[in-house]
Fold this sequence. Notes:
By secondary structure, this protein is mainly alpha-helical. Helix content is 44%, strand content 9%. It has a 3-stranded mixed sheet with strand order 2-1-3. The protein is elongated, with a radius of gyration of 19 Å. The two termini are 24 Å apart.
Amino acid sequence: MSSEAQAHCRKLDVVTVKGSSVPMPIFTYDALQNQTFPILRTPKFCNLSLEEVLKKQADDYDVVLWETDPDLVQLRCMATPEFLKTYRTGLEYYLGGDWLKAKDFLTQTDQMMNKSDTNGDGPSQTLLSYMQARDWKCPSDWDGYRPLTSK
């Protein structure tokens, strides 16, 4: 994935997967799911199939698409700069082991998303649940990542 595309992804956590001891970050592309988009069709007076049109668009890809494509912009409408900054701060506190501060910021981001037609922010809820299960106390052997115990 290009660095421009990566810039539109949100870091969720740093984890080790079952069977590995190598920590790796995980990311998501924030997309509001409760939306209706038009049905894809070929342009009028076009001799190409829809598959051919889509392939041509992919071949003509330019990084500016991440900022100008109406569908991509609409998908990310909830990922405001304020939300992303607050989430990043909460994630930094979480990874750094200050779970009480992380709780404050991640609770804010969950509430920010709860104001829309969503049920809060899933990634924030996941981290909050993980920390709450440990009574908001970072383990003494915390190295800035958590092990995933199942696939």
